[in-house]
């Protein structure tokens, strides 16, 4: 990338998608300007970069938020089955690639422990336990020790509150 090119990261503090890009930029040592977006009042730059839909899609957590208790239990079990794949892959490793943080750590880490789990916590679901997922939980603790990850993780209390607000908006729509 030419040195005179400017990188702008348009993001939302609670978004795992912009958080993972921020982690990757920091990991690669690429300087960038972070621009916090307000999705209720999108900037002209954001709209110009997404001219077809002029909206940001939200995925993943919406099904869980809309479901009744029985549906949530089914979705939680499906999530556990998927996280078990991660659990098995992490046996004997600090990170997915071994001893150092890589792309899969940033992708999975920004979404599962530092976003979805906080949403699950807000609606009272315990999807991942230390007993059932010891390798996964160890990996999360390892991620929390990495400065570039730690710097990009939204504050837990505010994030859980944000996810609760998302849940309320989804349920009322």
Largest sheet: 2 strands, parallel
C-alpha termini separation: 43 Å
Low-confidence stretches: none
Strand content: under 5%
Which CATH class of the largest domain? Answer: Mainly Alpha
Net shape: flat
What is the average of the pLDDT values? Answer: 87
Main sheet: which strands, in order across?
1-2
| Total DSSP helices | 8
Number of domains: 2
Structural class: mainly alpha
The CATH architecture classification of the largest domain is Up-down Bundle
Reading the helices and strands in chain order gives: EHEHHHHHHH
CATH level-3 fold name of the largest domain: Glutathione S-transferase Yfyf (Class Pi), Chain A, domain 2
**Strand runs, count:** 2
Rg is 17 Å
Topology:
Layout: E1 8-11, H1 16-28, E2 33-36, H2 44-49, H3 61-66, H4 69-89, H5 103-122, H6 134-145, H7 147-152, H8 156-172
Parallel strand pairs: 1-2
Helix pairs in contact: 1-5, 5-8
GO biological process, one term: toxin catabolic process
InterPro entries: Glutathione-S-Trfase_C-like, Glutathione-S-Trfase_C_sf, Glutathione_S-Trfase_N, GST_C, GST_C_Tau, Omega/Tau-like, Thioredoxin-like_sf
Organism: Capsella rubella
Descriptive overview:
With 173 residues, this protein is mainly alpha-helical. It has two domains: 42 residues, Glutaredoxin (3-Layer(aba) Sandwich), CATH 3.40.30.10; 112 residues, Glutathione S-transferase Yfyf (Class Pi), Chain A, domain 2. The protein is built from eight helices and two strands. The protein has a two-stranded parallel sheet. Helix 1 links the parallel strand 1 and strand 2. Helix 1 packs antiparallel against helix 5 and helix 5 crosses helix 8. The longest helix has 21 residues. The model has no long low-confidence stretch (mean pLDDT 87).
């Amino acid at each position: 990338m030419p040195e005179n090119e400017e990188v702008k990261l348009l993001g939302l503090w609670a978004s795992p998608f912009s958080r993972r890009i921020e982690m990757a930029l920091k990991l690669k040592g690429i300087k960038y300007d972070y621009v916090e977006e307000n999705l209720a009042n999108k900037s002209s730059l954001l709209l110009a970069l997404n001219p077809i839909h002029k909206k940001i899609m939200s995925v993943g957590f919406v099904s869980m938020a809309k479901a009744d208790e029985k549906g949530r239990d089914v979705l939680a079990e499906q999530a556990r089955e998927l996280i078990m794949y991660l659990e098995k892959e992490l046996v004997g490793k600090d990170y997915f690639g071994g001893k150092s943080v890589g792309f899969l750590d940033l992708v999975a880490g920004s979404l599962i422990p530092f976003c979805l789990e906080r949403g699950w916590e807000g609606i009272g679901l315990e999807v991942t336990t230390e007993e059932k997922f010891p390798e996964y939980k160890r990996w999360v603790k390892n991620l929390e020790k990495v400065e570039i990850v730690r710097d990009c993780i939204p504050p837990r209390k505010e994030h859980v509150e944000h996810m609760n607000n998302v849940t309320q908006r989804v349920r009322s729509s």
